[in-house]
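**Reference record**
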Amino acid sequence: MPAYSIFIHSSGTGPSLWASVPAAITAGSSQWFPANLGYAPLPAVPRGVHLTADDDARHLARSLPVDATSARIFGHSYGGLVALKLARLLTIPVESLFLLEPVLFGALNRDLARHPEAAAEVHSFADQDWFLNNEALGGTAQWLEVFIDYWNRPGSWARMPPELQAAQVALGWKIYQEVRSVFYDAAPFASWQMAMPMTVAYGEKTTQAARAMALELLAVNPQAHALHLPGVGHMAIAVKPQVVFTAMTAALVP
């Protein structure tokens, strides 16, 4: 009866995000790369259907292979929030959590006084009612340009080939639901104090908000290990995976 290493992808990516993870990191366990709701090979989420990270966590809990006896959970960005929620749902032991820049903007918004350097970034989204609450624009190319450029760098959306832009637009409504979920999840950082071993990783060149969220999660989990990734930003797992995997191997493999 095997243990499973569960790899949860971020917004706008898919199960292949983690597919090249080295076997050494998951030695002694079976790897599982599930799709969040709305991502291939699952059907798209129709525009107008409302979902949250709780729905994705419940979906993964229901989909876990029946022979799993324990789990190690890995998540990036939105997948990090889903990972935290999944860890609370599973009835099998969760051996560890690895969270790569988990996004908990709702919690951060409660503690902005502690992170003034991140406040401008949070307000750039939270104060734009059209970005969070305009369902006609949510997930469209106009909306995705703001989202993609924030997590990468200005002009990233414009530089994307048309076929990649079209793929993102096809996922746009679900991505919009994910962003709303991370902003409106009211749980404070203190509520994410977990008992199991945890690693929280963040990039040297990531956003101020992403760094603040990682540091707050580390602060409420004294057992957690901080993993600083040199020279990379939020999407390092997609654009420079070997930097991430090299650091993970050094931190997680005895």
Observations:
- The first helix runs from residue 53 to 63.
